[in-house]
Design a protein that fits this description.
Layout (H helix, E strand, L loop, with lengths): L2 H12 L7 H8 L3 H13 L3 E5 L3 E6 L6 H5 L11 E7 L2 H10 L7 E7 L17 E8 L9 H19 L4 E3 L3 E4 L2 E13 L2 E12 L9 H4 L5 H5 L5 H22 L2 H10 L6 E5 L4 E9 L5 E4 L5 E4 L3 E3 L1
Parallel strand pairs: 3-4
Antiparallel strand pairs: 1-2, 4-5, 5-9, 6-7, 7-8, 8-9, 10-11, 10-14, 11-12, 12-13
Helix pairs in contact: 2-3, 6-9, 6-10
The structure holds biotinyl-5-AMP.
Length: 324
């Protein structure tokens, strides 16, 4: 934000609900009346609703929906998750920043949030569509003392937390598709990406990236996504407060995470199976090298998917895309 913009917003918040004359603003900011008008127009472009009345001046009627530190921390009831927030209006990828912060020694529970990702990423180098002001694009830094092969459990833990958080905040019920998709009526509403910061066999940090489609309308999605993606606004019929949803997810995740560290994967596993759509069904798992069709039996204690083919052979699937 430019310093003029910051001063202008400060001026309006110091005089909340009041009209500020163009004259007064130009004096306080030390700029011309024309410059004031330009800054007001820029605020409008950024989603502020402003009233302009002759001889009275300007008044802010409503602020745009943002998901910066202020909004997230007001009303957050966690101890660690989201207590440290790194926020930028626009980033390449919150994952990338979280990796850097983890490397620099960020505390557990630190989150990186942005209104927009220019290069949001999915698994295997795929892109994650992250348009401005409509979604929750967040990376959470965890520092669990677990073996690297247990890290996939955290993807499942995150998925369960997201489903429960969304249900608490909106009442909308989602399903989980192994390993990292959250669906509503078969369409993807959330994607999760778990990345390790590890040295040989030691985990320094786990970065859990969560991308949630919240306030997009159908036409906001590029054509190739329209058939497979959805948002909470599309499913719920109206827009939602993104900060409130993130707060609910962080709370669910913190509770489940500490339970997991103390008591192990069992509770996560049971919850996960209760939300999973594919278990017990015929599915097709496409891995990098081949594809296997069979019945999804469940997940192991490591979070590995068990798939029984028609010959009765049980395959352990570590990473794949699933078709139901
Ligand atoms: C994922 O990958 O689902 C993980 C997405 C993780 C995104 C978060 S946002 C915060 C953090 N920062 C990042 O840079 N990333 C994380 P995958 O299973 O590979 O799915 C990717 C596929 O989903 C794409 O190839 C598209 O087909 C589809 N897709 C892309 N954007 C989408 C969206 N916004 N909604 C639904 N589907 C989408």
């Amino acid at each position: 934000q430019s310093s003029i913009r910051k001063q202008l917003l400060k001026l309006f918040s110091d005089h909340e609900g009041e009209f500020l004359s163009g004259q007064l603003i130009s004096e306080k900011l030390g700029c011309s009346r024309t410059a004031v008008w330009k800054h007001i127009e820029e605020l409008r472009k950024d989603g502020f609703e402003l009233e302009a009345v002759q001889r009275k001046g300007y008044r802010i009627i409503s602020k745009p929906d943002r998901i910066s530190g202020n909004e997230i921390q007001l009303g957050l009831n966690t101890k660690f998750f989201g207590r440290e927030i790194y926020y930028e209006e626009s980033v390449d990828s919150t994952q990338k920043i979280a990796h850097r912060l983890a490397y620099e020694g960020a505390v557990e529970g630190t989150i990186v949030v942005s209104e927009e990702q220019r290069m949001g990423r999915g698994r295997l180098g795929r892109a994650w569509f992250s348009p401005i002001y409509t979604g929750i694009w967040v990376s959470i830094i965890l520092k669990p003392e677990i073996a690297p092969q247990q890290a996939p459990q955290l993807t499942l833990l995150a998925a369960v937390s997201v489903v429960r958080g969304i249900q608490k905040a909106t009442g909308i019920r989602c399903d989980i598709k192994w390993p990292n998709d959250i669906l509503i009526n078969g369409k993807k509403v959330v994607g999760i990406l778990t990345e390790l910061v590890a040295e040989s066999d030691r985990i320094n940090a786990v970065i859990v990236g969560i991308g949630m489609n919240v306030n997009q309308e159908r036409e906001h999605f590029p054509e190739d996504l329209q058939a497979i993606a959805t948002s909470l606004a599309i499913e719920g019929g109206h827009k939602w407060n993104r900060a409130a949803i993130l707060q609910a997810v962080l709370k669910e995740m913190e509770d489940l995470y500490f339970d997991y560290l103390k008591n192990g994967f069992q509770v996560v596993k049971l919850l996960w199976e209760s939300y999973a759509v594919s278990i017990g069904k015929q599915i097709k798992a496409r891995t990098l090298t081949n594809s296997i069709t069979g019945k999804a039996l469940g997940i192991t204690d490591e979070g590995v998917l068990l798939l029984e083919d028609e010959k009765g052979t049980v395959h352990r699937i570590y990473s794949a895309d699933i078709e139901i």
